[in-house]
Amino acid sequence: MKCVVIFMTDDVAQTYDGKPLMLQEALFCPVLNWCMRAWTEKGIRRFFVVCAPEYHEEVTACFPEGAVAVVGTEEDYHRDIGDFAKGCWIEEIHEAMLPVGSMMLSFRTVPELIRLQQAVKEDIVTYHQNTGVNVLAPDNTYIDPRVSIGAGTVILPGTILRGNTIIGDNCEIGPNALLEDCVVGDGCVVNASQVYESTLGRNVHVGPYAHVRPKCRIGDGCKVGAFVEVKNAAFGEDTKMSHLTYVGDADVGSRVNFGCGTITSNYDGFRKHRTVIGDDVFVGCNTNLVPPVTVGDRSYIAAGTTVTRDVEPDSLAIGRVRQEGKPGWAKARREIFGKKQ
User: Fold this and answer.
1) Helix (H) or strand (E) holding 231
2) Element (H, E) at 235
3) Which alpha helices (H) appear in the chain, and where do they start and end?
4) pTM score
5) Number of structural domains, the chain?
């Protein structure tokens, strides 16, 4: 058995942010994470990382699942390594390195790391292409090594996939899409949009120009359309928000239709409040939902309504000023200002 000891104490002067080279990012992922993943794939499960105390939290976040790993100072290393690595052959790593193909290549500066990043970028694309993913423009696509992509999925130009993102089969991602720490079900389309820390069900359509902020759960068959923003909200299946809508801090049922210009007024200046919308609700255009408020199943909200009270199931809510016409008003106004037309 082997125990790998990584020293990260002498190279901070070579970086721009004062962090060790092994904590610099390559394709959005710390180099240390790259290395530990590569060593783990070769059967190594025991790691000791030596670094200054201020980096212990970042280092711990890089430990692979299932590995036996600790982080400590150089004093901790000399005191504890005998017990920690008992029965193991110890390999000490004193240079920053990045796995490229089957090799571990060392680097001494950030510019050298950037040059190595191009090589691993190509390795990642090749890996996904070999598992049935169609990456149309590898030079214009950036995929974090932690990302998983299902067979039959097409990655269009300008796409950035970051963090622990999981994409299902037969999806279409891009062009110009960014996904970070997301779970995307089979058959989804994400077009020119950004999705963060959220879950999309099967056959969800996002975009173009949509923004899915963290803590969203979007059900099967939903549409998050053009210039739509959602945040910390759950949506049942087949709910549609086609354009120009904001839904934040809400629990929305299935088969709900949001008209253009709808918003949830979730923030009162001090606290966030939740909106609850039942199944089969029709929300008319230019509706303001002022929570805390509940909209019952199968109800209708008339266009231009501001909802400040709960809406009963199967009812129609109207909250707007009745239109009034004043014949001749416009003509009289023009005459006041000396305008003939």
Assistant:
1) strand 223-235
2) strand 223-235
3) 31-41, 56-60, 74-84, 110-130, 329-336
4) 0.90
5) 2
Distance CA 249, CA 275 (A): 7
pLDDT tens column, 266-304: 999 999 999 999 999 999 999 999 999 999 999 999 999
Q: Are residues 224 and 299 in the same domain?
A: yes
Regarding whether 144 and 100 lie in a shared domain, the answer is: no
The residues carrying an active-site annotation are 243
Give yes or no: residues 248 and 222 share one domain.
yes
Residues 109 and 143 in one domain: no
Find the mean pLDDT for residues 17-27. Answer: 90
Q: What percent of the chain has pLDDT over 70?
A: 98
In this structure, what CATH number is given to the domain that contains residue 289? Answer: 2.160.10.10
Over residues 168-203, the pLDDT tens digits come to 999 999 999 999 999 999 999 999 999 999 999 999
d(C-alpha 142, C-alpha 62), whole Å: 20
- Do 170 and 223 have their domain in common? yes
How confident is the model at residue 296, as a pLDDT?
A: 98
As a whole number, mean pLDDT of residues 55-82 equals 93
Please give the residue range of the domain that contains residue 230.
132-317
Give the per-residue pLDDT at 18.
Answer: 80
The candidate with the shortest Cα–Cα distance to 125, out of 147, 102, 99, 152, is 147
C-alpha triplet 24, 142, 96: angle, nearest 5°: 25
Mark whether 100 and 181 lie in a shared domain: no
